[in-house]
Automatic annotation (TrEMBL):
It comes from Niallia oryzisoli. Keywords: Hydrolase, Magnesium, Manganese, Metal-binding. InterPro entries: CoAse (IPR045121), NUDIX_hydrolase-like_dom_sf (IPR015797), NUDIX_hydrolase_dom (IPR000086). CDD domains: NUDIX_CoAse_Nudt7. This is CoA pyrophosphatase. Pfam families: NUDIX (PF00293). One of its GO terms (molecular function) is 8-oxo-7,8-dihydrodeoxyguanosine triphosphate pyrophosphatase activity. Residues 23-156 form the Nudix hydrolase domain. It is an enzyme of class 3 (hydrolase). Its cofactor is Mn(2+); Mg(2+). Its EC number is 3.6.1.55.
Length: 211
């Protein structure tokens, strides 16, 4: 293949994430509700019957299905199913920045308004309970921040002899900041806290706050 054909083959492509086709993809919704004329953020507590992360606090969401038209439709569908509300009760949906979690899954977060919170009837098979926190609390409360350090452990037969430095190769190590918010005995952390932190920074006008 000559250079002209190489350029022509690639000319109109749009860049994406390398290896995206092999990654699992999820959507979540950060739900806003109005309670006594004050904006609240709604959270779920995952059912203790769930295999993954039982009892943890999260936003509504889940894996993108083949039947979902796009990431937005997944967020709407999952929120409707988990909170027992009609899809039409979810309005003013706006995308936040997507991210890769520690398992290299792509997470597409959105923020949206639930217009009839009094009609919420959680799906007991997935949701143990729901609760809300005033937005004003998060805007005046900084999270506690702790670091998680990642370690490189090559498999037993990794060909260290093929790379410069061999066993003494200087791997690039990284860390992840974990955010913790505590409210009335509830602990919000992990991906949920990262999405929340990003959302709050956008309200403050800081767009590039997470490294």
């Amino acid at each position: 293949m000559n250079i002209a054909k190489v350029i022509e083959k690639l000319r109109d492509r749009k860049p994406s994430i390398l290896g995206k086709a092999e990654l699992l993809k999820y959507s979540v919704l950060l739900p806003l509700v109005e309670i006594e004329n004050e904006t609240h953020i709604l959270f779920e507590v995952r059912s203790m019957n769930l295999r993954r992360q039982p009892g943890e606090i999260c936003f509504p969401g889940g894996r993108i299905d083949e039947t979902d038209a796009d990431q937005l439709q997944c967020a709407i569908r999952e929120t409707s199913e988990e909170l027992g509300i009609e899809e039409s009760a979810i309005e003013d949906i706006i995308p936040l920045d997507f991210t890769l979690n520690a398992s290299s899954n792509i997470i597409y977060p959105f923020v949206g308004r639930i217009t009839k919170p009094e009609q919420i009837k959680p799906n007991e098979s997935e949701v143990g309970e729901v609760f809300t926190v005033p937005l004003s609390f998060f805007r005046t409360t900084k999270p506690d921040v702790y670091k998680i350090y990642y370690q490189v452990i090559p498999e037993e037969d990794f060909p260290l002899h093929l790379i410069p430095g061999g066993e003494n190769y200087k791997w690039s190590l990284r860390h992840l900041d974990e955010y913790f918010y505590q409210y009335n005995g509830k602990v919000i952390w992990g991906l949920t806290a990262r999405v929340l932190y990003h959302f709050l920074k956008l309200l403050e006008g800081e767009e590039n706050e997470i490294s």
